[in-house]
UniProtKB/TrEMBL annotation:
Residue ranges crossing the lipid bilayer per the database entry: none
Domain XdhC Rossmann: 112-259
Superkingdom per UniProt: Bacteria
Gene3D superfamilies, per database record: NAD(P)-binding Rossmann-like Domain
Region (Disordered): 267-291
Residue span(s) of domain XdhC- CoxI: 18-78
Official protein name in the record: Xanthine dehydrogenase accessory factor
Amino acid sequence: MSPSQPSETWHAALHRLQRDGIPHVLATQVTSAGSTPREPGARMVITEDAIFDTLGGGTFEWQTITVARACLAEQRYGLSLEAFSLGGRSGQCCGGFVNILLEAFPGATAHVAIFGAGHVGQEIVKLSAPLPWQLHWYDSRSDAFAEQYQQQPRLHCYLLQNAQQSVAALPSDTHALVLTHNHDEDYTLIKALIEHDDVASIGLIGSDSKWASFQGRLERDGYTADQIQCVRSPIGRIHATKLNNKTPYAIALTVVAELLWLTDTPSSQENRGLDSQALRTLMTDSPTTTS
């Protein structure tokens, strides 16, 4: 019997999970020999706490779900191949053989907190929409978020009322950008962020003179040089050169480019795609001899 599952089809779930940046695994039956519950092309989608559609039920489906969730828990993303002898590994009476291709997707690859919903903040949000980031957008003005942003995937809007509480609620390893409409609010946020050890990076918008003023205030307030050096200001500099085009779009473009470098984490896998030996075995060996 197949595990209990939501009624959403695998393709609808795949679209939603990809759009919303939620980690998931697409399991596809790619071969079938002998008597099997379903035929090649059958698919299901697996998340940490839900499954969508079915490969036919039974023990081998439970085993597929277990392997898929282990990939998510251990952050083993990419392609892998699982072989099931339904009379051997899975102990099912039909006695056939299937290969299941698992495609594990990480969902959102980074969290970005944007403090400030002014012109630059709006452009950053727009430019970030196609990227695999979860965006956490804050502003102290209740009317700052236009309705058009409410439907953007992976975007969460919050009213900024208390800097310490908002920063404490950020996911671990969040990249924070501070660009509110008020310098005192910026300063309060910078203090909260440099006191929070779990922030991946801190960026502050403004001129060199603004940052020099903030540095002096931070020193007078007792912050160490190491804490102060955690702040990147002004944000959006390309190769340490100043940008002559200071339109909100141009500034946002350089900020997003900077974030792409900061959030880029190269894969540790030497092989891309399926293991070549596993693929050769799949294409040449007789499945009836595998257990």
